[in-house]
Amino acid sequence: MLLEILTFPFMQRALIAGAILGVLLASLGVLATLRKMAFFGEGIAHASLAGIAIAIIAGSNPLLIALLWAIAIAILIFFLERSTKLPSDTLIGILFTASMALGVIIMSFTPGYQPELLSFLFGSILTITTSDVIIISVMSVAIMTWLLMSLRQLTFLSLSEESAQVSGINTKMHTLLFYIALAIATVLGVKILGIILVSALIVLPPATSRMLSNSFSSYFALSIIVSEIVIIAGLVFSYLFDLPTGATIVLTGTALFVIAALMRTQRSR
Q1: Residues 17, 136: contact at Cβ < 8 Å?
Q2: Which pLDDT tens digit goes with each residue over 137-153?
Q3: What angle do CA 58, 39, 246 make, to 5 degrees?
Q4: 5 with 155: CB under 8 angstroms?
Q5: DSSP codes joined into one string, the chain
Q6: What are the boundaries of each domain within the chain?
């Protein structure tokens, strides 16, 4: 049955894109959860609606415009965080609701049914194109290269920003780059999981692996493994049982999380 699935080009593209995004989102998710930034991915995903709406009404590539819009929002959050002294979750809440409202207004000027918009809202493996796979691959490789080169500094920064600054780490630059990287990864994940569900893949694999690991290295590696299992299994289940892809992936991840929680509870007893 699995070999039969691999004969379909759309499933091939979805599995390739999903496998790449699994590594990227889980890796960034580890650092995001350490920094208590789970809401960041949710906010950026919803904020990207305005960029998607602009692209649809202008006849441009929604993924590229959404990426540019998300990067702009991430940079704006970074600078407002430092100039206004407001916490990031407050700024994210303000900007993502404003951006979503702008997207809704822009879409109101576009008459008729918009399948492209629905695919971004809920995710759709059928809409992943070869160009999307190329964009996802190039951006993911670039971000993962930077992430692995800066992992020590980013980990130190995630645990204690003050200590990282005292040790000579450029905390402002690394924080800004992390915000941008997380924003890009979130929008890339929207194509498969949709705006509504993509943040789950930033949170679920790290949360699951944290209950099963006893060191940071195993925590990081297991997060990636869990993410790959969740995405691939979710894609296969959605195809076999004709279910919505994004929702199936998230529920698969949730099931693994529950199993891990039960194992941790049993072990603690």
Answers
A1: yes
A2: 999 999 999 999 999 99
A3: 60
A4: no
A5: -HHHHTTSHHHHHHHHHHHHHHHHHHHHHHHHHHTT-HHHHHHHHHHHHHHHHHHHHHTS-HHHHHHHHHHHHHHHHHHHHHHH---HHHHHHHHHHHHHHHHHHHHHTS-S--HHHHHHHH--GGG--HHHHHHHHHHHHHHHHHHHHTHHHHHHHHH-HHHHHHTT--HHHHHHHHHHHHHHHHHHHHHHH-TTTTHHHHHHHHHHHHTT-SSHHHHHHHHHHHHHHHHHHHHHHHHHTT--HHHHHHHHHHHHHHHHHHHHHHHH-
A6: 2-268
CA–CA separation, 221 and 217 (whole Å)? 6
Provide the CATH topology of domain 2-268. Answer: ABC transporter involved in vitamin B12 uptake, BtuC (1.10.3470)
Categorise residue 113: left if φ over 0, alpha if ψ from -120 to 50, beta otherwise. Answer: beta
In this prediction, residue 126 carries a pLDDT of 63
For residue range 21-69, what is the model confidence (pLDDT) as tens digits?
999 999 999 999 888 887 888 888 888 889 888 888 888 888 889 899 9
pLDDT in tens, 201-228: 899 999 999 988 888 889 999 999 999 9
pLDDT of 7 higher than 90? no
